[in-house]
Predict the structure.
Amino acid sequence: MTTPYLKHFFCWSMCFFCINAFSQKEIKSKIVDFSTLLPIESASIYVKNTTVGTVSNSDGKFVLLVDKGFENDTLIISSIGFKSFKSVISAFENDVEIYLEEDIAALDEIVLLAEPRPTTGNEIVQKAIGKLDVNLPELPYLQKGFLRHKERNKKEFKWLIESAITLYDSSYASGSNQNLKINVDEVRKSYDLRDVDSIFSYYSYLKHNAKNINLKSKRLDRDTIETASLIKAIKWNDTRVNGLANLFKGRLNLLRNSNMSEALFGENMLDKHQFELDTILVDNDRKLYKIKIAKSKDFVGLNTKNIYNEGYEANGWLYIYWDNYAVKKIEYELVAASESQKGRSKTLFDTQVNHKLVMTYMEYEGKMYPNYFYYETPKLVNIGFKPTKKLRRDDESRYDKDERYYYTIQEILFTEIILDPELIDESLKGAWTEDIFSNRPYNKAFWKNYNVLLESEEEEKLIQDLSKRASLFKQ
């Protein structure tokens, strides 16, 4: 249930939207690379000087709802390494493809500087981390956004949740454990067709939560375990792997939590990462560094409760603005590197990439706020027939690797920032819940005017197939 304040806020909002629904303008198009004619994924589409915006999907397509009060404002479509497209919203033509041309950074031959400019990748990243207290928010704020949670094997979607969420953060300087909160406001879709081995989840649940139980001597039988206990174990497994707290309050929130103990981008950052300057690019007329993330002398670990999450090497890219050293984008992967993690990852997940993270930031009133998150991780469900020796012909049909190995994807798009202290204080008076897995009724009026991430054509087909076989919250 939402808090009384949020109920009141949403009721007011829905009345407002009903009155002003006619004033909503839908903007949609496809963004294409002019040179290659390939779609551009994750391009930013937003109204200038606001936080109203979205990102393009893997097909390069997007849909954005804006109030007609913005019709004289400028719509900006930008992607790192390309010249931006700009148009007055009233003049924007839907369904006309947008072609972006490559933009080459031209560095000034003579630059007068008050202090020496760093020249290596390590120096540039250290400079950027040192400026986080200037570039990240120093005052409390709320962000409203859209979450899409997907779980699938290599063949099809097995689980889909779409929610509207609110994030509260007191500031970069405060610890996220006590000063960052997430609330699930509304749920749009919730389809669950997973084949979860509940006995395995139950065993793991007992191992980490029960006291004084000798699991080696305990015979677990599905027929003798209460259904409620199995469900509790499955939900516990969902939360420990994909709970929102893991993403926002843990080490993977690389910039926000760089001041926490043993942070990945903390004071010992270079023990676990090396950074190599690759080139200079352009983003919406601003130069930025493109920096390669590479391995260092120590393994990377996340110290996740109840999960062995150690023994990785990091790779990826950092994009840092040339002028103020603010981080624009992070692409970050953790790949199994230690012998124990390599064996575990291959056996349990059939992959060596255990964490894949993309984070982009947008500038608003001089500060960088989270804009878009993409997080992918394999998930142990241990379902299906597991051969221990060479398969006989009549067993081959029972074993399908594409069915056994699951992975989850969480995408979050933030579309509104609230800085008003009174609204922030009022919103904090009620209880908040970060549980994205609880079933809730569908609020049609709310979602009619809410910006969501557009599915790709492949995703749309898989989701339609999933929804046909599910009965929960059918629309």
In short: Confidence is low (pLDDT under 50) at residues 1-21. The chain has 13 helices and 17 strands. The first helix runs from residue 4 to 20. Residues 121-433 form one domain.
